[in-house]
Description:
Elements: H1 4-19, H2 21-35, H3 45-50, H4 52-68, H5 76-90, H6 97-112, H7 118-145, E1 157-168, E2 171-178, E3 192-198, E4 205-211, E5 221-226, H8 247-254, E6 261-264, E7 281-286, H9 291-303, E8 309-317, H10 327-333, E9 337-345, E10 356-360, E11 375-379, H11 382-394, E12 402-405
Parallel strand pairs: 7-8, 7-11, 8-9, 9-10, 11-12
Antiparallel strand pairs: 1-2, 1-6, 2-5, 3-4, 3-6
Helix pairs in contact: 1-4, 1-7, 2-4, 2-6, 4-7, 5-7, 6-7
Amino acid sequence: MLSKSSAAVVTATLPVVQTHGEAITSRFYQRMFAAHPELLDLFNRGNQATGRQQAALAAAVVAYAEHLTGRSTLPWAPILDRIAHKHASLGITATQYPIVGRHLLAAVGEVLGDAVTPEVAAAWDEVYWLLACELIAREARLYTVAGLPLRAGAGWRPWRIVERIPETADIVSLILAPADGDPAPTFTPGQYVSVAVDLAGGQGQQIRQYSLSGRPGAATWRITVKRLRGGAGAAGGSAGSPAPDGTVSSQLHDRTAVGDVLRLSPAFGEVSSIGALGVPLLLVSAGIGVTPAMAALAQLGAVAPAREVVLVHADRSAAAHPLRHELPELQQRMPNLSVHLWYEDATDGGLPELKATIHPGWVDPARIPLAPDTYAHLCGPVPFMAQVRGELLRRGMPAERIGYEVFGPGMLAG
């Protein structure tokens, strides 16, 4: 809990910190990377280039301060769990938090100048360390449950690509087996792994997180990777700061082959895409967001084939819909699987053996079938999930029955 004296100072200074938040976080990253260039390997350089990461950090610090001072009713436990799982997947350790704190508070002073009195600095330092301690504790529990030592680099393992499967023009699936010959660990549908790739020219590494799209308990893991195209029209881009091509996705598409070895983290992620067995399941996805839904279907096809499941997926067209070729076999195993597809271009319905209701255009959440006591899992672009979640809430679904996954700087969304 924030001390009474610090709460008063933080409340009084919140408006000015919020106004200058992105300037503060931009300066923070400049300072920290200059002093610790090795930390560049942990951060998405694409999000740094577009400013998304700076904006997200500013929003998170302000939102947490509002939470501590009672100015916000946003539930923070789920957000902290989400951030902790992301950090654990990246291998963040407790020793890195003092580095972040030192440079973040120094950036506040540099941007706000004389307005940062010793009392103001102490109050915001308290905010930071309350947040840091909550995350450190959660991350330590995750490492302990995973059987990992609390040190940098723990948990990363070499995995060998044993198969590459082109799914669409821009999407490829990589089938991976542990390079050391040990069994592949199991995971919960909805969880993800971090993949680290070395950049050309000795420019360090970059890490991205991908949902596991195959069946838990199999001898291999599968990730399904969409090539991210850059430009001003891309997600996160603007006319002034166009989004670059996806560094890791491009490398996984263009520079990996069967037999190559990748470094993967253990599976993490607090959101299950199957929920509790025994209740109807609604899976709603768009684009590459279908991957945790396919992991759920693969698992249920093996352990609970009679479960009532509705799959709703949105895409540009049947040809752009990844992993759709697996749906007919899943329907054969799962007699209560109902498929509803929304294609912007619905002129080609795709697979004739697939029993699906195909709608033209964008998903209309009001037309999604909804049985009583349903658990819903959503994955896709944040605006898409917000629209679907809002309609499900309007139709009476309790918020605790709606799981959703957010990657990247939008983790406060929803």
